[in-house]
Design a protein that fits this description.
Layout lengths: L2 H16 L2 H16 L5 H40 L2 E3 L5 E3 L11
């Protein structure tokens, strides 16, 4: 595979790993434009297909990791709503860590 295409693939991997989907889409668009502009042998096409399959796996893993992180944040927020706190006079009050009005999806 040509070094320019290899550099484009590396440029696509960085935002995927960082979880920056907008930047990843921009780099994928640049990569696809650079592929379309080149004549390639069957061997080069196979190498690119393998690299794209690897990118797909990486993107899926990044997506799963991001979803798990979001689920954990929701669980932590839900748990924080359930904390009961006693004030100085011994009176039980609700925790103000997360206000119920802040939950907008």
């Amino acid at each position: 595979m040509k070094s320019r295409l290899r550099a484009r693939l590396t440029a696509v991997k960085r935002p995927i790993i960082a979880g920056n989907s907008a930047a990843a889409l921009e780099e994928i668009e640049r990569f696809s434009l650079s592929i379309a502009a080149q004549d390639m042998t069957l061997t080069e096409r196979k190498k690119i297909a393998a690299a794209l399959a690897e990118l797909s796996l990486l993107a899926e893993a990044s997506d799963r990791g991001m979803r798990r992180a979001m689920e954990r944040i929701v669980r932590i927020t839900d748990l924080a709503h359930n904390f009961d706190v006693y004030d100085e006079s011994g009176k039980m009050t609700r925790s103000s860590i997360c206000d119920s009005t802040s939950r907008r999806y």
